[in-house]
Amino acid sequence: MVAAADAQNYAQKLGISHGMAVQELGWDEDTDDELRANLEETIGSELLDEDTDEVVDVVLLWWRDGDGDLVDELMDVISPLADDGVVWVLTPKTGHPGHVDPSEIAESAVPAGLNSTTPVSLGTWTGTKLTQPKTPSKQR
């Protein structure tokens, strides 16, 4: 029962709720299947893959050291993102193979026009939320 409560907490930590369109990129054998299953259960559908042409609320990017150029990847992943959508960069925790330093994520976010927030713990993974800058409201 505890595992189910922890899993439910994943969707809450990521700000994901029923009906959201969530695109998953960077899936590999090491991704957390429990986290993925919980997100699919929460949104009520399967995670979308890289071939989707839908506008998405959330991009879930599994990223490891050695996966390539994070700046280039972030530039690509923001194209299907809704105006208020977010990118979650999921990386292995410190001490696990493929760990990426949070400062590298923060530095990579800037050229893509994104702002990074404080990372959250997601089992053996760490999630860093990247947000788009708020557009200034029009003044009358």
Structure description:
This protein has 140 residues and is α/β, with parallel strands linked by helices. It has four helices and six strands; from the N terminus they run H-E-H-E-H-E-H-E-E-E. It has helices at 2-14, 33-43, 70-77, 102-109; strands at residues 22-25, 56-62, 81-92, 115-116, 120-122, 125-131. Strands 1, 2, 3, 4, 5 and 6 form a six-stranded mixed sheet that branches. The radius of gyration is 15 Å and the shape is globular. Residues 1-5 have low confidence and may be disordered.
Write the layout of secondary structure elements.
Layout: H1 2-14, E1 22-25, H2 33-43, E2 56-62, H3 70-77, E3 81-92, H4 102-109, E4 115-116, E5 120-122, E6 125-131
Parallel strand pairs: 1-2, 2-3
Antiparallel strand pairs: 3-6, 4-6, 5-6
Helix pairs in contact: 1-2
Feature tags:
140 residues, 6-stranded mixed β-sheet, disordered N terminus
Précis, in short:
This protein has helices at 2-14, 33-43, 70-77, 102-109, and strands at residues 22-25, 56-62, 81-92, 115-116, 120-122, 125-131. By secondary structure, it is α/β, with parallel strands linked by helices. It is globular and about 35 Å long.
